[in-house]
Amino acid sequence: MGFMGSSSTPRSVNGTGTGSINVEVAAKPRRRRFSAEYKLRILREADELAKTGGGVGALLRREGLYSSLLAAWRRERAQGEVSGLSKKRGPKQTVDPAGAKEVRRLTTENARLRRRLTQAEAIIEVQKKIAGLLGIPLSNHDDDGSDS
Description:
By secondary structure, the protein is mainly α. It is built from four helices and no strands. Helix 1 packs across helix 3. The chain is elongated, with a radius of gyration of 37 Å.
């Protein structure tokens, strides 16, 4: 008899009974995703087993789940039967207030008009220089663009 009471017969880790240890580690583990239907089925089974006096642990072992996951699914189910269980991952979608879309549109238009104004002012400066070189007199208007 060896250390820690091991027997002379080889034991299987992967359940094949061949005696060989076949442990495969994925290069990058992938997160398991559960459908809303699967979650509801497991919750129904767990609720039935809990009413009859046990067996929830066996269900969790059979499915490879943790009790904390079951508790989280129950919490989600309380929020909304299917909508809570089919929660999407990623950033939350924000709902724009009524005027936010209009503010974005006006800000974009304002930036576009400022670019056009800068371009128009540059063209006017070039025209003034050309008029000065050609000796063409310009009428005396204020440079600020007002008509007062």
